[in-house]
Amino acid sequence: MRTSECDVVVVGVGGQGVILISEIIGRAAMMAGLSVRGVETHGMAQRGGSVINHIRVGCSFSAMISPGSADVLLAMEPVEALRYAHYLSPQGVALVNSRPVMPITVTTGMASYPSIEEILAPLRGICSQVKPMDATGLAEEAGSPQATNVVMLGALSEHLPIEEATILSALSETVPARFLEINKKAFELGKIEVE
Amino acid sequence: MREYLLGNVAIAKGILEAGAGVVSGYPGTPSSEIVDYLAPIAKEHGIHVEWSVNEKVAMEVAIGASWTGTRSAVTMKHVGLNVAADPFMTLAYLGVGGGMVVISADDPYCHSSQNEQDSRRYAQFARIPCLDPADPQEARDMILRAFSLSEKFGLPVMVRPTTRVSHARADVEVGLPTKRVDSPKFFKNPPRRVALPVHARPLHAELLEKQAGIEATLAEELWNRAEMRGEVGIIASGIAGLYAAEAIAELEADLSLLRIGTYPIPRRSVGDFLERLDMVLVVEEMDAVIEEFVEMVAKERNPDVKILGKRSGSIPGVGELDPLIVRNAIAGMIDLPRKMAPKMSPEALTILPPRPPTLCPGCSHRAAYYAMRKAFGKDAVFPNDIGCYTMGVGMGTVDTCLCMGASITVGSGIRFGGEERPICAVLGDSTFLHSGLTGLLNAAYNGARMTVAILDNSITAMTGHQPHPGTGRTACCELSPPLSLEDICRSLGAGSVDTADPYDLESMIGAFERARDHPGLSVVVAKQACVISAMRAGVRRPRLAVDSEKCGGCKICIKFGCPAIEFDGNVAKINALCSGCGVCAQICPEKAIEVVK
């Protein structure tokens, strides 16, 4: 039997605002009366390293998602999508920001960055849907590249067992008031992008 | 009320609910957010919250507070308990006044640590109770219970969260803070408070006599619960208990489950459980603490039961568990198919560029290392320490990393061991004040010919920017007395003490060269604020850019390793991460990097 209503793995690079996504979803789930679990990367890896958060909505077991079980892989960065693709269930959906953040190994010439097609092809091999999008571009359109995480949240929203209005009120409670308009627009653009 | 809380915040709220009056700690992942959360609200709750200079100090402060009747808590990471082990062990003899809780956060998989030690062993070693939460709710509940158990038995009680509890979030039911005790006072009682041999012997006997009562009480705790569903069972501790419960639900299997949340392990519950089984799987992270106990109890109660666990290879002995590992261990035991995570093709994995954590763009440690290499050469020996700067391992200036403060002492030993090449030990300001002082004193006293570089960014950066005595303010943002690292080093006996700004490479290299040529013990303080703190404080420096006409494509700036410098076609390029430190402009042989006006 299923042990969680919706399992989301959020991946990216330290500093991309992955924890904020987890906070908003957690708050929204509680407003909806659902039990929620999450786990975050703190500490060393936050220094420009690769980060992964687990969020489980409608779950009362541990916060850790089993590899092969995630309903959604929400990737703030393309190679990070591939790095954590083994968390996806074969029926899962990968939502991938197509804008790369170059790792230090690439900028110093020790490794090279693959093309977006090289990244998406193996992803398509392991899950049912892969949806790449220029979330950073959409965030810029909304008014700030910092809102990339909220664009991704908008794209994720239709997959969550929570009403959109509830997610939006959790968003309003979480982000600073002066950035709320930008964030609402970012959310909307992300949502439209995957419709 | 119900809130979506980080495990460490749930713990902090539990401490407030319990009415603790003093909370001390030293930062260490995954424990830091407990004091981080409490410090800014300490004043409104009328409690004393401090970042102490190290874990031993923190432990002793909490002990002193407890001896006034005030409830106290001390927080640290697992390896911090090694530093605090001395007061911790004898405290079990002397006992507490007000309830005292020791929070030692373990880090299976070494996410941010140098080892995977299991704090449950320490609790056994000291013969004190230990509570092992599975999730943030249990962490909060156990804190409250730990205070009352501590007062019931007159002993400190350990609460041992792991990374996946401290850094998990969940909807947690919390209550309101209670007020700390009225009229705290230290009562003189030498036989209880002075660990002379004549007092210690009867106190040791008393500690042993308490054990039966502790075991009987803990056996009744709701965190130790058995569900009987057949002759095949699982015994699991802490978070592993949740993994096991989820696996049983997912597999829809008839399996018995005993979850253990307290130590000492309830002997009778384990025996009663084993008596009804043919086969049992023990699931726990880190050491085989429960498994060894189960083997012992099985000899008395059910010698025929088949025991699976770490010894049988069913559960890994290193790293952390996850729901899939536990599910497959359980499936393997009852001959159900294992579930495989999707396998990526080997080609797909080879295209993945690694993304290790790195020093930030503009981090002054990178510049200090660059200057150090220039002055000492790559053949010198560089004993290193614990902090952000350990991430400079790729720069050739990190040769050892053992534990907090060991750079200077290991460096001294390398010298006395007979190494003739130059030695430059490296540690940060927070680490120096934590446990480098004694090492420097020892190096001066015993005549170690070496250089000590203190990378002073005025903050404990790696764990989340906690202040220390060199920062000039306390955890609660009170101003603290000014402190000069240079004066301290001179007082401890360093023969030459020099300070330079790593952003000014020429003077930094000069300082290292003078230190290298000093015939005795020399100290160099490389002083520049942490780039993240500076940014938060509003410091904005003009960015830099490469003049592509002048760039010869030599890649010297690329090899410097700053994430803000990329190679684009045949020339270097500075990206948006640039914080304006200006060091790359100083190392470019073509003078092709300039400040953007």
Automatic annotation (TrEMBL), chain A:
Catalytic activity: indole-3-pyruvate + 2 oxidized [2Fe-2S]-[ferredoxin] + CoA = (indol-3-yl)acetyl-CoA + 2 reduced [2Fe-2S]-[ferredoxin] + CO2 + H(+)
Organism superkingdom: Archaea
EC number, UniProt record: 1.2.7.8
Domain Pyruvate/ketoisovalerate oxidoreductase catalytic: 14-190
Keyword annotations: Oxidoreductase, Pyruvate
Subunit structure and binding partners: Heterodimer of the IorA and IorB subunits.
Function: Catalyzes the ferredoxin-dependent oxidative decarboxylation of arylpyruvates.
Name of the molecule in the record: Indolepyruvate ferredoxin oxidoreductase subunit beta
Lineage: Archaea, Methanobacteriati, Methanobacteriota, Stenosarchaea group, Methanomicrobia
UniProtKB/TrEMBL annotation, chain B:
Cofactor, free-text remark: Binds 2 [4Fe-4S] clusters. In this family the first cluster has a non-standard and varying [4Fe-4S] binding motif CX(2)CX(2)CX(4-5)CP.
UniProt entry tagged with the keyword Metal-binding: yes
Taxonomic superkingdom: Archaea
Gene Ontology biological-process annotations: organic acid metabolic process; sulfur compound biosynthetic process
Required cofactor(s): [4Fe-4S] cluster
Cleaved signal peptide residues: none
Reaction catalysis annotation: indole-3-pyruvate + 2 oxidized [2Fe-2S]-[ferredoxin] + CoA = (indol-3-yl)acetyl-CoA + 2 reduced [2Fe-2S]-[ferredoxin] + CO2 + H(+)
Iron-sulfur keyword on record: yes
Keywords on record: 4Fe-4S, Electron transport, Iron, Iron-sulfur, Metal-binding, Oxidoreductase, Pyruvate, Transport
Functional summary from the UniProt entry: Catalyzes the ferredoxin-dependent oxidative decarboxylation of arylpyruvates.
Protein name: Indolepyruvate oxidoreductase subunit IorA
